[in-house]
Amino acid sequence: MKLTIYGGRRLFGDLTVDGAKNAALPLLAATLLTDDDISLQNIPDVGDVRTMIQILEHLGKRVESAHSRESYLIRTVEPPLSSAPEHLVRRLRASFCLLGPLVARTGLAQISLPGGCPIGVRPVDLHLKGLRALGAQIESLGNLFQAQTHKLHPAEIYLDFPSVGATEQIMMTAALIPGRTVISNAAQDPEVHDLARLLIKMGAGIMIEPGRLIIEGAPRLQGTSHRVIPDRITAGTFLIAGAIAGGDVTVHCQPLHLEALMSKLDELGFEIQEHVESIRIVSEGPGSYNGGRVEARPYPGFATDLQPQMMALLALARGTTTIKETVWENRFSQAAELAQMGAQIRIDGSTATIEGVEYLRGTEVRGSDTRAGAALVLAGLAAQGLTTVLDSEEHIARGYADLPGELNRLGADIIVEEEEKASEEKEVVGGRG
Ligand code: UD1
Predict the structure, then answer these.
(1) Which homologous superfamily is 2-17+230-423 in?
(2) Is the CB of 166 under 6 A from ligand 1?
(3) Looking at the whole model, is its pTM more than 0.70?
(4) What confidence score (pLDDT) does residue 431 get?
(5) Most-buried pick from 50, 124, 160, 415 (CB within 10 A)?
């Protein structure tokens, strides 16, 4: 996909964000814990969700779209298989969370090394530590992890880092193990708590304490219905879009999940209004706000998934900014692309230092992961002239249902071309030349 952005348009209006991709993915995985029907609403229509649905269908589920595009009924047509197809699993890291539910259901599970955005080494040691503590024997066979067990048992597990995926993996597995499992230093993200709410409706007992989850598993889990929480990362992306382009944008979302972003935007000098179910940002655009310090940390800290978009915003701030990334070790890929547009960014390990510039100029840039791609689109909104974001691997659509379409509805001017059309056009242009 190729996005061409005509910079300099202000954004006005309001929008409602879809359900959270990062909540929907583990919720879909959790449907493997029961043979009963599960109905899920507010599932976003993004690439990663479509891949997860394909994996579930391979594993014996039928995923029917009910009433509207965002509602699905997940039924069981065959007992779960033990292994998911490698070519699908490799497309997204969240697929690794299937290992626990599958071993809990079948006693044997095989999942290949997960893929996803290239933002770090992405080890799975905490997932494996948790599953081993619950009684699974795990072997790595080349690219494949195999987990098997005669009987799983509850355990007390301390995570060295509050990994979102490992917390979800352990919680799902423990939900199907009678007895009390405790996860200490658990991730506290809203998406983790959304999964806990589904598991409670399915019959598990889960107590949420600060940094700790206590799970009373059940021998059998039942069907239920659940609505996915709004996507805080999508909401944050649109708020930063309003900030960088200038204008007046209201995003209908769950403000409680965006406190770190709102507080940071307020500190930088934007007008932020928080309502019960929406956030409004009013901005005068580039040059009207200050630089500052941003540190991406586990929730409730500033979300790493909004760090690239923040970097684009701060490239046009007054003064100096430092951004420290503490979650992923390779999450500054947008910096070199922003530099092509005229941004002044110096990277030193996990810290980026940005000297704000007066303007960015449009050019051709490449998005190498979902959020870096979004960050470049936002930079294009404020840049002088034409910015072309090349997203040949469709990273942006993996995480956003329609980023360019929503921005256009707010007043942006973005043209989207599919890769084939884009390359056909290149040939025509080449022919003329
Ligand atoms: C989830 C989100 C992703 C977000 C991330 C951090 C989904 C589908 N994706 O990813 O968008 O950026 O949380 O908020 O929900 N780690 C280990 N060992 C492990 C697991 C993780 O060292 O076993 C490390 C990772 O390499 C990384 C850090 O922990 O440096 C965070 O990873 P984690 O919280 O697990 O992220 P994901 O669940 O993969």
Answers:
(1) Enolpyruvate transferase domain (3.65.10.10)
(2) yes
(3) yes
(4) 30
(5) 124
